[in-house]
Amino acid sequence: MQNKQLYWSKGSFCLLLFVILGYTVRFYPQHLEAFDGMVQTAVRGDLPAGLTSFFATLTKLGNMPVIITWVTVMTLFLVWKRYYSEALFLAGNLILTGLLVVLLKNIYQRPRPSLEHLVVEHGFSFPSGHALAAGLVLGSLLILVTQGISSTGLRRLLQVVLVILILLLPLSRVYLGVHYPSDVLGSLLLSLGLLLIEYPAYQGLRFRWRFTGKQAR
């Protein structure tokens, strides 16, 4: 596809930023204290009850059982409709999210924030699994919606909803006190970098399979 190198360059730059941030998290976490503290104070405020209830409910959408359920349903639907490259793209990024969360959390081993947690979470903090799922899995769905929905009104509505979720799910993790802002920033950089690098390969496969009749047009 055209501009393949541009996608790869942008994706590589995002991944480089993630690596730099991860290096800082692992070896010089004190350099992130001012940034994390400033954003935490701005986001959490005085923890109003209504906002706490909203974010505590919203964050459940990023729980792995929930994501696995709807991605499985969506993948089966795409396969039924013979959109095989789209199904592979969506399901593959769900699997990649799970693998990366396990691998990277054990590499960086960052403790969770010491401030009050408004939901129960265990394990390491960096990167945020919820934020990575929001960026990589919901980001994949955003691409599919943009390509596959012919109705302009419905497409724009779904795009707006997905973008809001991609932003609010990571924000909920900071508000609830279970992740540092740099955790979710790292996850969003990683997911954006991966999507930019994957996109030309996905588009190429989608074009070939449609052109040869291996999947629906």
From TrEMBL:
- UniProt keywords, alphabetically: Membrane, Transmembrane, Transmembrane helix
The Phosphatidic acid phosphatase type 2/haloperoxidase domain sits at: 86-199
- UniProt superkingdom: Bacteria
Pfam families per the record? PAP2
* Residue ranges crossing the lipid bilayer per the database entry: 12-29, 61-80, 87-108, 128-145, 157-178, 184-202
What is the recorded name of this protein?
Phosphatase PAP2 family protein
What species was this sequence derived from? Answer: Streptococcus danieliae
